[in-house]
């Protein structure tokens, strides 16, 4: 896993010190993370997305003994949003993991995020110790394959 450049990392002491603009996403991701079904990896992950209309949807990782059936927190949050609203546009997503530095979305999740977000969408990776870093989808997944490639 590539390390996050130090200049992108910001230290905060806990969710109470997370920037005000991210507090609601942090809380939603933390609440979902508490419900993580992760008996195989032990890695509890929560995610929350903010859609372009300001609504927040959360998800947690749900592991499966077949491994291929596992759903990451990011995709769970996106699926919840689509089920609730139909067509969505992601403005930003926050991923909460135990790792230090905090983990970014995996490759499959990046691709799914690209389906519903523009290149300027913000990706925030956080951990319970208060470390976080932020970047854009374009920087996290340059030259993403999107519906535009299919003429849609």
Task: Describe this entry's structure for a reader.
With 152 residues, the chain is α+β, with helices and mostly antiparallel strands. The protein has one domain: Cytidine Deaminase, domain 2 (3-Layer(aba) Sandwich). It has 4 helices and 6 strands, in the order βαββαβαββα. It has a 6-stranded mixed β-sheet with strand order 1-6-5-4-2-3. Strand 2 and strand 3 form a beta hairpin. The longest helix is centred in the middle third of the chain and has 13 residues. The protein is globular, with a radius of gyration of 15 Å. It starts with 8 loop residues before the first strand and ends in a 12-residue tail after the last helix.
- Assigned CATH class: Alpha Beta
Report the strand count: 6
Read across the widest sheet, the strand sequence of neighbours is: 1-6-5-4-2-3
In CATH terms, the superfamily is Cytidine Deaminase, domain 2
Oligomer: single chain
Main sheet, how many strands, which sense, barrel? 6 strands, mixed
Q: Distance between termini?
A: 33 Å
Number of domains: 1
> Radius of gyration, rounded?
15 Å
**Envelope shape:** globular
The overall average pLDDT, rounded, is: 90
Number of helices: 4
Element order, helices and strands?
EHEEHEHEEH
Architecture (CATH level 2) name: 3-Layer(aba) Sandwich
What structural class do the secondary elements suggest?
alpha+beta
Q: Which regions have little confidence, pLDDT < 50, spanning 5+ residues?
A: 1-15
In helices, the fraction of residues equals: 25-40%
Strand content: 15-25%
Q: Could you say what the CATH topology is called?
A: Cytidine Deaminase, domain 2
